[in-house]
Write a structure and sequence with these properties.
The chain is of the alpha+beta class. The chain folds into three domains: 82 residues, no CATH class; 109 residues, no CATH class; 146 residues, no CATH class. The chain is built from eight helices and 13 strands. The longest helix is centred in the C-terminal third of the chain and has 24 residues. The mean pLDDT is 95.
Length: 355
């Protein structure tokens, strides 16, 4: 994530901010520029339009309709859009939580924070967000569902361009319970979105992108029975040697899951490194005899070689894990990256850069 600032007073602000905490300016995110700006009302109270600073040349803007629920701060061009229009991130929602539930709005906000952060990274990678109303773009829609007593279980997953997220996992307590149930070291809403979008990326960039044979060389044959592979994984656990070949235990279940897990970790790495670079974070050990290298982080989006990105990532994540342990917390990134998984990350990086 970039370091975002209020364009009026230059105070730092968070990606989700609707108003500057320092000067009070209304804020909006411009997806085309990948930045937050302070907004001025046009004075047209009937249509409630806004202007960004002139240097962005946006013309009149309107808020995404979901801003009324405080789940989105993205802006749309007023030209060609009507009041009540949704931004590129929110228009991918096919089903949102039932807002008549007491906990639904808070859960939805948490889900949208994760989804919007996912889409920031996708746009940063140059991957356009499909419009569900445009039949010429690949299908990508989200069902954000709470379980209902007497109805089928809600299973987080992807099928045919539809991503389903169990909205109950917006509850930290429920998500932590599930994490323990599946013996996972890491489980977050953002991780769910990053993983499931990996299945969609596989369909667009691998299956339909002419890269299936290269994929099979690294990840294995995806024609292996998927349902049986998952049944065996949940019944018997991961294969014994998974740490030597995969980025996570679940990645060993099936080549599709290996790609989706690797994709999610790729996004973890790129976004965290960008944040570290934006903040000027480096690693400069006080002990000259340590094996930890001296490091000034660089913008990962400007590095063409995934191995050089990992040269930045590994010392940074060691430092971050050490800081967490100093606070009595679990590791921020509780994973090791074996050479086989590193090769898969390099495949994904090349896939993205090839467009």
């Amino acid at each position: 994530m970039k370091l975002l600032t209020c364009s009026r007073c230059q105070s730092v602000v968070h990606f989700e901010a609707e108003a500057c905490p320092a000067c009070g300016a209304a804020l909006g995110f411009l997806p085309e520029a990948l930045t937050i700006v302070a907004l001025d009302p046009t004075g047209d109270d009937a249509d409630w339009l806004w202007l960004a600073p002139a240097r962005y040349e946006t013309g009149e803007l309107r808020f995404c309709a979901n801003r009324i629920h405080h789940v989105c701060n993205w802006m749309l061009p007023a030209s060609g859009t009507a009041a009540g229009a949704l931004c590129p991130a929110c228009r991918t929602n096919r089903i949102i939580p039932d807002l008549s539930r007491a906990d639904a709005l808070d859960d939805w906000r948490k889900l949208e924070i994760a989804k919007h952060r996912l889409f920031y990274t996708m746009l940063r990678l140059g991957i356009s967000l499909p419009d569900p109303a445009d039949p010429d773009t690949p299908r990508l829609e989200f069902d954000l569902l709470h379980p209902v007593v007497g109805q089928p279980k809600i299973r987080t997953g992807h099928a045919g361009g539809i991503v389903t997220i169990n909205a109950a996992e917006a509850s930290d307590a429920i998500r932590e319970q599930v994490r323990h149930q599946f013996n996972e070291p890491y489980r977050t809403l953002l991780g769910h979105f990053r993983h499931e979008i990996g299945h969609w990326v596989w369909a667009q960039r691998v299956q339909h992108g002419g890269r299936i044979e290269a994929f099979r060389t690294l990840f294995g044959d995806e024609r292996t029975d998927y349902a049986e592979a998952l049944r065996r994984y949940y019944a018997e656990g991961p294969r014994q040697d998974w740490p030597a070949h995969f980025i996570s235990a679940y990645a060993s279940a099936h080549p599709w899951e290996d790609f989706a897990e690797s994709w999610a970790h790729y996004l973890h790495i790129m976004d965290t490194l960008e944040t570290a670079f934006a903040l000027g974070i480096g690693i400069h050990p006080g002990n000259p005899d340590t094996s930890l290298p001296d490091l000034d982080t660089r913008d990962p989006y400007r590095i063409g070689d995934m191995h050089r990105i990992l040269d930045q990532w590994l010392p940074l994540v060691f430092a971050l894990n050490s800081l967490n342990r100093s606070m009595g917390l679990a590791d921020l990134y509780p994973f090791a990256i074996p050479p086989a998984a590193e090769a898969k990350l390099a495949f994904i990086h090349d896939l993205v850069r090839a467009g």
